[in-house]
Amino acid sequence: MVKNTGGPFFDPTNDVAFRKLFGDKKHSAVVIDFLNAALGFKGKKRIARIDSLGEHQLPPEHRTKETILDVHCRDQQGHSCIIEMQNNGGDAFDKRATYYAAHNIVGQLGVGDAYCTLRTVHFVGILGFTFVQGNANYLSHHKLCDIRTGKQTFDTIHYAFVELPKFHLKLNQLKNDAERWVYFLRHAPALKEIPRQLDTPALREAFTTLQEHNWTPTERRAYVYSMIARTDREMQMSYAKRKGLEEGVKKGREEGREEGR
């Protein structure tokens, strides 16, 4: 372990922490490193600079419902990059992701602009639930392709989904930046120090950003409100599922009795 005197780390999947970490120009090096890891960019394809990353804003403390959060930026070649954080499934996430990516495509063209000027949109979804069925990989990439040959036919939109529940590697099994970042996203709140396996410049900055002593009282209060809202939402979803199951069982019994009669 690397010595750390900053105390515990906040949860990067919390909406307030997510904004502070990925939505602040002060941490552009963190965003660049994460995007290159998640998108698998190497060599000349690596993102070297990002533009138009806005300052993060705290959500209102009275908010009672957790929202899907996104960070928008552009790389040095003008390609759009979207980072989404979604802890719970539902809400037609697949359609929402498609809409967000398509909206960024449409927004690139002005009146009279040529289609050839369109730049690729990279959509990275960090998900706290299982999204891609039948695929055990925690990181998957998706593009439009020919359904028979699998050959890529369009490269305008690139989706990358990081499914945290599918990630089960231990510290001594981490071999690349993508694995290090996903381990950080999933396990940061449980760590007391920065493991040597995660001690890279970008991840050290990420850990430092999440240390409680680097947060203002207003930020800490917003973080706690957000955690409460997240817990409430999870409890509501759990209750709805349980209630639906009970009603389904009851209806099945009634239909069974009627059929038996």
Structure report:
The chain is of the alpha/beta class. Helices cover 38% and strands 13% of the residues. Strands 1-2-3-4-6-5 form a six-stranded mixed sheet, with helices on both faces. Helix 2 crosses helix 4. The longest helix has 44 residues. The relative contact order is 0.18.
Key descriptive features of the protein:
261 residues, 6 strands, disordered N terminus, single chain, 6-stranded mixed β-sheet, 6 helices, alpha/beta
Concise summary:
With 261 residues, the chain is α/β, with parallel strands linked by helices. The protein has helices spanning 15-22, 28-39, 93-106, 177-187, 201-209, 217-260; strands spanning 50-51, 69-75, 80-86, 121-127, 139-142, 157-163. 38% of the residues lie in helices and 13% in strands.
Rg result: 21 Å
The percent of residues in helical segments reads: 25-40%
Stretches with pLDDT under 50, minimum 5 residues: 2-6, 62-67
Q: Helix count, per DSSP? A: 6
Structural class: alpha/beta
> What does the overall shape look like?
globular
DSSP strand content: 5-15%
The largest sheet is:
6 strands, mixed
Euclidean distance between termini CA atoms? 69 Å
The strand count comes to: 6
Secondary-structure map:
Layout (H helix, E strand, L loop, with lengths): L14 H8 L5 H12 L10 E2 L17 E7 L4 E7 L6 H14 L14 E7 L11 E4 L14 E7 L13 H11 L13 H9 L7 H44 L1
Parallel strand pairs: 3-4, 4-6
Antiparallel strand pairs: 1-2, 2-3, 5-6
